[in-house]
Amino acid sequence: MKLKKILSAIFKKTGGSKTLIYRIKCKKCGEIITVRINPGTDMRSPYDDDAPENAAYILTKEILGGKCQNIINIKCYYDASLKEISRDISETGTFI
Ligand SMILES: [Zn+2]
How far is the CA of 20 from the centre of ligand 1 (A)? Predict the structure, then answer.
């Protein structure tokens, strides 16, 4: 996929195979799920109208723990230096 190649090239240049870590709690069973985000493969350019003005990347991910079938969706925006601008999570989980 072309976009991924471009993104990974950008991240290589800015020194980042940096991994972001989120800890998420499943609201159904209480499991704490650690999610590792690889910016080069998990993020893309935002295309939707909801994106903050300075957003350079968006992350959307479906998270499923090991204990139940409760799916948690997260959506985060980042600026060009990968600083998180906003975060959103479905009703089924919480950031901790
Ligand atoms: Zn669960």
Answer: 22
Strand extents, DSSP E, 1-96: 20-26, 32-37, 43-44, 57-64, 71-78, 84-89, 93-95
User: What is the strand order of the sheet 71-78 is part of?
Assistant: 43-44, 57-64, 71-78, 84-89
From ligand 1's centre to the CA of 84, what distance in Å?
A: 25
CA of 29 from ligand 1 middle (Å) equals: 4
Q: pTM for the complete prediction?
A: 0.78
Q: Using the mean position of ligand 1's atoms as its centre, give its distance from the Cα of residue 62 in Å.
A: 13
Tell me what percent of the chain is helix, strand and coil, each rounded to the nearest 5.
Answer: 15, 40, 40
Q: Which tens digits make up the pLDDT trace of 33-77?
A: 999 999 999 999 998 778 999 999 999 999 999 999 999 999 999
What are the residue ranges spanned by the domains of the chain?
2-95
